[in-house]
Amino acid sequence: MVFFTGPQRPALCLCALLGSNLLTAAALAQPADGLYVTASYQLQHDSNLFRLPTGVDPRPLIGRDSTGEMVHVQTLGVGFDKSYSLQRVRAEVSLANHRYQHFSRYDLLAKNYALGWNWAYTPDLFGRLYLEREESANRFDDAQSLSGDNRRLRKRQGLEIRYGLDGPWQLQGALHQARESTSVDQFGEDSYRQSTIETGLQRRFGTGNRIGTRLRHSDGRHLDNPLTQDDYRQDELWLDLRWVLSGKTTADGSLTLLERSHPSDPAMDFSGHNASLSVNWQASGKTAWTLSGTSTLSGNQTLTSTHARNERLSLTGTWLPGSRTSVSGSLAETQRRLLGNPTGMGTDARCDRTRDASLTLVWNFQPRLSLQARLQHSQRRSTQASADFSSTQASLGLNARY
């Protein structure tokens, strides 16, 4: 795999493009057993990269008359995936080279890895140990500035343990550490680090139904928020449920009570609930549908808000017209409402409503090669007119795995 640094010829772009997503589908289709190599090339076009409102003159902001941008993404990776008796070892290291046609200051060579050990001491005592690093290019939906580079970095590590008690009962516990940072100022979002401890109990039934409860405690710290630099604590009580409605339909749901406190800045505290429900219907051997809804609280710290309520409803469908081809599509609507009053100045009444529609085609023309084409449209309407945008993204790619 050559990491191109100059302009690509159209024929080369098309061939590479055809291979990028093709590789991804092949990777999903082929079970790994030992050492493997992945490579891909993807061509992406975004009609409104910086999510500028319709009717705004882009030249004073980005120096061009057009808001569209073409991005070339080349990836190269090596991995290992193998089982040894009750143990399974996974490791993958990759480079992803993002090259922008007109805005080279956002070029990014992302370095990623994922290391995991699915361990088992006995069939009843097992778990997972993992270490991950994910580097990616930010989206500009809520960017406060267009200067600088465009890098988002996530690091995660942890240990998960499960122990089967007599019959259908299972104990579970986990320790997690996470850190996330971004080089672009995002509205209501800041870099943080967080440590989490979790314990729970689950009951499984012979019908496939299950119910469980979890307790989770997190300690974290905001890293670059100018409003608060203090530590925070968050406690959560979860109720999880799976219900087999029929041989073709299952429902998964959860209800969470949470409370976040900032000992050094109580004005930033908030509490409430999260809820989610999804219904999965396997209509036939070739067609599947998923209807899901979520309502969650998340930190959104500004001068006039402490958190936000995010509500999302989505419908996703998948169709397999042939043994080598899959078609999937989705429709989603998300609403974000700002809440809280940290300064006594009044709560920000901003409310954003975003609609997304996408269509994806994957063709596995070889056992280890796949071609993928994707089209997506996003539109946001906000009570803050400057936050409105409309954008269409198209991508074509070729992927390979050997």
In short:
The protein is mainly β.
Number of domains: 1
Total helix count? 2
Outline the low-pLDDT stretches. Answer: 1-31
CATH architecture: Beta Barrel
Task: Output the radius of gyration.
Answer: 23 Å
Helix content: under 10%
* Quantity of strands, as a count: 18
CATH class: Mainly Beta
Shape: globular
- Quick check: average pLDDT? 87
Tell me the strand percentage band: over 45%
For this structure, the CATH topology is Porin
Structural class: mainly beta
Straight-line N-to-C gap? 13 Å
Q: What oligomeric state is this?
A: single chain
Commentary on this structure:
The protein has 402 residues and is mainly β. The protein contains 2 helices and 18 strands. Strand 13 and strand 14 (305-322) form a beta hairpin. The longest helix has 20 residues, at 10-29. Residues 1-31 have low confidence and may be disordered.
Descriptors for this entry?
mainly beta; 18-stranded antiparallel β-barrel; single chain; Porin; 402 residues
SSE order and pairing:
Layout: H1 10-29, E1 34-46, H2 59-62, E2 69-84, E3 87-100, E4 108-122, E5 125-137, E6 151-164, E7 169-182, E8 192-204, E9 210-222, E10 231-244, E11 249-261, E12 270-281, E13 287-302, E14 305-322, E15 325-339, E16 351-366, E17 369-382, E18 389-401
Antiparallel strand pairs: 1-2, 1-18, 2-3, 3-4, 4-5, 5-6, 6-7, 7-8, 8-9, 9-10, 10-11, 11-12, 12-13, 13-14, 14-15, 15-16, 16-17, 17-18
